[in-house]
Specification:
The protein has 15 helices and 23 strands. 38% of the residues lie in helices and 20% in strands. Helix 4 crosses helix 5 and helix 5 packs parallel to helix 6. The strands form 7 sheets. It has a 7-stranded mixed sheet with strand order 14-17-18-13-12-20-21, sandwiched between helices. Strands 9-8-7-10-11 form a 5-stranded parallel sheet, sandwiched between helices. The structure holds nicotinamide-adenine-dinucleotide (NAD). Nicotinamide-adenine-dinucleotide binds next to helix 8 and helix 9.
Length: 494
């Protein structure tokens, strides 16, 4: 990556955006738009259409027609594979442009976004392209006079609702497996991070995806998202976002056609450091990057540090020094390690958590303030709060910002009890040099992923899914195919 190229791209004008329906860029029926605000400096970058039920219904009917005509679903697997490969190549060829566009829209530091967004999305699309012709049905073990067949079929029309923290990566986790098996898709990006996803989906058409197979509707959750979730003709809804919205989607499904709803929700990741670890410096760096990269707006963020009491003061000192040395600021500067929060609303939410922490009299050992207010952007200092009791809201609620709570423990049993003392169960981490303890912790912690002696970075070969109120279903790996397929059996008398 080259700073000059980034600086050129960051000043490019962004034209008003359109919906992408039936392969065409069109305005919303009502003509309404939403402003796109850059979290870097609060400037207005562009507009997106505010699609309502009329637009969503159109997109869903176009998706249904494309599916029923078999424009994509009935293409030979090798042909679908080639289109997806070509799409992945185009995403890579446009990676810097996509990354800069996305960062201008959502504020993630480019040093992280470049790999985590376009490059990760391209790898995901390629993974599912490679896998799509390795999916087989089954022949059941029946008596000789009958034949029992189990077919795996695409579900039809998939609705996908995407959050703002990693739009391309998470978008590809849904679109990749859904398209690979022949479904048609209607995608709704977050209203505060639509630009790069619109561009990535336009590239799919350049790669040869038939019109109507992948459609994008933009707008607010309350209008556009709700219309998609209440559609009578969406078969499966795949969502990543907050538990608050996840609950609404289940209601919308019940109020409409009982569509299957898959929820990838938030986390409150316990990151556990035992005194027996000989890699405490590495652990400290992992704890700091595990909560402060992307300003803490990461579903698998390790937002609760649980540290063994014997090493608490030494370890907290290490992470404090690392946090204070972090370069916070312009996310399009390659040297920046922590960028902006996504929106002014989210800035207010994170600051209100910090105010609550102060009013509870908790010990903020570094940070605790808005940063760079003169920039016009939405920044918060990396914040560490020591000796947080499990009853505190900071221990329990997902802040989704750069705020780390520290809680000491004495024994392994206490660490497990604290780790599991949460309604959420997405990700966790354990640092120990005791192999038996590592395995015991993996078995005991109720999260979808347990990292051992590392944090984050699990690639597409392993699934990601929440336990408890962090959701259901799996993104990534071959297991993601399950969400976008139906099983059908044939029972044939011979
Ligand atoms: P959000 O729930 O506010 O919004 C997510 C999406 O839902 C957006 O596109 C939004 O427009 C839409 N939406 C909002 N209200 C809606 C409604 N009534 N009907 C239909 N759609 C609606 O989440 P966010 O703030 O964009 O993202 C942050 C959340 O996402 C955090 O909780 C984070 O942990 C979670 N997340 C989870 C994962 C995971 O893999 N489990 C990954 C990333 C983010």
């Amino acid at each position: 990556m080259d700073q000059c190229a980034i600086d050129t791209l960051r000043h490019e004008a962004i034209s008003p955006q359109s919906l992408l329906i039936d392969g065409r860029n069109i305005p919303s029926v009502n003509g309404e738009t939403l402003a796109v605000i850059s979290p870097i400096d609060g400037s207005v970058l562009s507009t997106i259409p505010q699609a309502d039920t009329a637009d969503v219904d159109l997109a869903v009917s176009v998706a249904r027609k494309s599916f029923e005509k078999g424009l994509w679903a009935k293409q030979a697997p090798a042909a679908r594979k080639n289109v997806l490969y070509k799409w992945a190549d185009l995403i890579e060829a446009n990676a810097l442009e996509l990354a800069v566009l996305g960062v201008r829209d959502n504020g993630t530091e480019i040093s992280m976004a470049y790999k985590a967004e376009p490059l990760s999305a391209a790898a995901t699309i390629r993974y599912y392209a490679e896998a799509l012709d390795k999916v087989y049905g089954d022949i059941a073990n029946t008596p000789g006079d009958v034949l029992g067949l189990v077919h795996t079929e695409p579900v039809g029309v998939v609705g996908a609702i995407i959050p703002w923290n990693f739009p391309l990566m998470i978008g590809a986790w849904k679109i990749g497996p859904a398209l690979a098996l022949g479904n048609s898709v209607v995608l709704k990006p977050s209203e505060t991070a639509s630009l790069s996803l619109i561009k990535m989906c336009q590239l799919a058409h350049e790669a040869g995806l038939p019109e109507g197979v992948l459609n994008v509707v933009t707008g607010s959750g309350a209008v556009t998202g709700k219309a998609l979730a209440q559609s009578m003709d969406v078969d499966v809804l795949a969502f990543t976002g907050s538990g608050f919205v996840g609950r609404k989607l289940l209601e919308y499904s019940a109020q409409s056609n009982l569509k299957r709803v898959y929820l990838e929700l938030g986390g409150k990741g316990p990151h556990i450091v035992f005194a027996d670890s000989e890699k405490l410096e590495e652990a400290a760096r992992a704890v700091v990057s595990g909560i402060f990269r992307n300003a803490g707006q990461v579903c698998v963020a390790g937002s609760r540090l649980l540290v063994q009491k014997d090493i608490q003061s030494e370890f907290v000192q290490r992470i404090r020094e690392l946090a204070e040395a972090m370069k916070l600021g312009d996310p399009l500067d390659l040297k920046t390690q922590m960028g902006a929060l996504n929106s002014s609303d989210h800035l207010s939410k994170v600051l209100s958590y910090i105010e609550r922490t102060k009013s509870e009299g908790l010990e903020i050992i570094t940070g605790g303030n808005q940063a760079l207010p003169q920039s016009g952007g939405f920044y918060v200092e990396p914040t560490i709060v020591n000796n947080v009791a499990p009853q505190s809201s900071l221990f329990r609620d997902e802040v989704f910002g750069p705020v780390l709570s520290v809680t000491p423990f004495e024994s392994e049993e206490e660490a497990i009890a604290l780790a599991n003392d949460s309604d959420l169960g997405l990700a966790s981490g354990v640092w120990t040099d005791n192999l038996s303890r590592a395995h015991r912790m993996v078995a005991a912690i109720r999260t979808g992923v347990v990292h051992v002696n590392t944090y984050g970075g699990a690639d597409g070969t392993v699934p990601l899914g929440g336990h408890k109120q962090s959701g259901n279903g799996q993104d990534k790996s071959l297991l993601a195919f399950d969400k976008f397929t139906n099983k059908k059996t044939a029972w044939i008398k011979l």
